[in-house]
Amino acid sequence: MTSKEDPEGPDAPARAHRSDRSPWNWLLLVPVVLPLLTFFYNSDSPRLAGFPAFYWMQMLFIPLGVACTVIVYRMTRKRG
């Protein structure tokens, strides 16, 4: 048996080809990379409700990550 032959034999059912190569997947990098860019929020001001910028910006990253995930899910799900 060569490496190119199907190990399940010629009568095996064909598997559906799945591709996760949507350009929408690049949007998932935003909630990963943005918190790593500390120069955006490495300061005490501006304060929001008495909280330094670091704390309230960290809290903004949570809904940002959720929004990016929802957008990618809705744009890449299989309709059928």
UniProtKB/TrEMBL annotation:
Keyword Transmembrane helix among UniProt keywords: yes
Q: Which Pfam families match?
A: DUF3311
Q: What's the superkingdom here?
A: Bacteria
For this protein, the parts annotated as crossing the membrane are: 24-41, 53-73
Q: Which keywords, in A-to-Z order, does the entry hold? A: Membrane, Transmembrane, Transmembrane helix
Q: Which InterPro entries match?
A: DUF3311
This chain's protein is named DUF3311 domain-containing protein
